[in-house]
Amino acid sequence: MLSKSLFHAAVAVALASSAGWATAQSSEPIKVGLMLPSSGTFAELGKGVADGFKLYVDEQGGKLGGRAVQYIALDDESDPSKANENANKLVKRDKVDVLIGTIHSGVAATMAKVARETNTLLIVPNAGAGEITGAMCAPNVFRSSFSNWQPGYAAGLLAGKKHKTAVTISWKYAAGDESVKGFREGFEKSGGKVLKDLNLPFPGVEFQPLLAELATIKPEAAYAFVAGAGQVKFVKDYAAAGLKNSIPLYGAFLTEGTLTAQGEAAAGLQTTLHYADGLKNPKNDKFIAAYTKAYGAAPNVFGVQGYDAAQMYDVGLKAVKGDTKKKAEIYKAIENAKIDSPRGPLAFSKSHNPVQDFYVRVARGNQNVMTDTIVKGLVDPSRDCKL
Ligand code: PHB
After folding, report:
1. Each residue of 246-259: pLDDT tens digit?
2. Does residue 172 sit in the same domain as residue 129?
3. Residues 141 and 169 in one domain
4. Which pLDDT score is estimated for 27?
5. Do residues 307 and 301 make contact, with C-beta atoms less than 8 angstroms apart?
6. Are residues 244 and 290 in the same domain?
7. Residue ending a domain, choose from 221, 242, 273
8. Cβ(230) to ligand 1 under 6 A?
9. From the CA of 320, how far away is ligand 1's center (Å)?
10. Is 301 in the pocket of ligand 1 (CB under 6 A)?
């Protein structure tokens, strides 16, 4: 038995050392693991996400939740076969406090697995793989972007307003398959019928045989999911094959961030996303000005998704005054966050996927100009998420 005074002394020592430890802890920077592609077909998308994230942190004086930020960046090469090793390097070797990544659905699905195994916070700033907020959903896994189903579904609703038949063209991997599935659901809901799904391996750009087959099927419309650098060649090949006027082409990301490179071939193309050029709200006005000042070019959806990933983490960290050990509290705060996003108000479904509006955009010059809202507050069905 400790005497009363000894007990008090012991408590005092314990309190002093834990307070000292907390101070030492919070003076250390927050380690942010940026697992994004900086090479390959998605390199520009990865840069947009990283730039957006860093812009928000810079606006907070280089801090998140009151603590300085240290970045540990890794090129994931959009290569699923390297994803397990890369994510584990960041978590186990570099001991990051949060994983931010990535663009490619297959790589991100593996990141979600590692995040679950190690109870590390993961915020996915692009990849739409359904399982991340579906069967693999978890308290510590969030998305600042979209599920592949969402923009595909919105495009299906749009195309279905004018056309009765369509053919899809996509890269054969999770994002392509799920985007096409979303399109089919929206298109059928509007009374249309998808006649055939054509595809090629990621990140291939041999589109000619598929375009030739499309021309022989002669549907009323086409929907395509190819992305990044691949979409530049696709849109040019589509126009060069003489299909642009005979079979109207729809997409989601198809013209995002690439209009300068696509030129005339993209003019007039209609796409559906959760962001658009000319979107008017006070947050977006400020965001466009700050982003353009920092990077010398206007932002696109990838910059928005990176910026919002940083906003989400900031909400979580502020709720615990920067104490990263309070993991459950951080997750709860992000789950309930109402984010003022450049895209408009951003909240999260039970499965931690954004609930958001989808806009119709038409390519004019180097802008995807907003013309309409096709669906408001769209929630991913996340049928297999048990949270
Ligand atoms: C994905 O792999 O989920 C993905 C990649 C690029 C995009 C959209 C989705 O533009």
Report:
1. 999 999 999 999 99
2. no
3. no
4. 75
5. no
6. no
7. 273
8. no
9. 33
10. no
**How confident is the prediction for the chain on average, in pLDDT?**
94
What per-residue confidence (pLDDT) applies to 26?
A: 60
Contact 173, 181 (CB under 8 A): no
**Pairing between strand 98-100 and 121-124?**
parallel
CB-based contacts of 333, cutoff 8 Å, min separation 6: 315, 316, 318, 319, 320
Residue 175 CB less than 6 A away from ligand 1: yes
- Taking CA atoms only, the protein residue closest to ligand 1 atom 3 is 127
- Range of 42's domain? 27-146+281-355
Where are the extended beta strands (E) located within 139-228? 141-143, 165-171, 193-200, 221-225
Same-domain status, 45 and 84: yes
Read off the amino acid at residue 153.
Y
Q: Is the CB of 333 under 6 A from ligand 1?
A: no
* End position of a domain, from candidates 249, 273, 297: 273
* Separation of CA 123 and ligand 1 centre (Å): 15
Query: Looking at the 3D structure of the chain, how many domains does it have?
Result: 2
The whole-number pLDDT of residue 16 equals: 41
| CATH number for the domain that contains residue 314 | 3.40.50.2300
**Tens digits of residue pLDDT in 19-55:** 444 444 567 999 999 999 999 999 999 999 999 999 9
Q: What is the pLDDT of residues 299-320, one digit of tens each?
A: 999 999 999 999 999 999 999 9
Residue 36 Cβ contacting ligand 1 at under 6 Å: no
Ramachandran angles phi, psi of 33, nearest 5°: -90, 115
Question: Residue 215's pLDDT is what?
Answer: 98
Which residue out of 44, 102, 148, 258 has the highest number of ligand 1 atoms within 8 Å of its CB and is therefore the one to mutate? 148
Ligand 1 atom 6: residue of nearest CA: 227
Whether 302 is in the pocket of ligand 1, judged by its Cβ within 6 Å, is: no
Q: Does 385 contact ligand 1 (Cβ within 6 A)?
A: no
What is the rounded average pLDDT of the residues 307-334? 98
Structure tokens that stand for 150 in this block = 């969402």
Residue 69 has pLDDT above 50, yes or no: yes
Query: pTM for the full model?
Result: 0.94
Using a 6 Å cutoff on CB, does residue 145 contact ligand 1? no
Torsion sign across C-alpha atoms 288, 292, 295, 297: positive
**Would you say the CB of residue 127 lies under 6 angstroms from ligand 1?**
yes
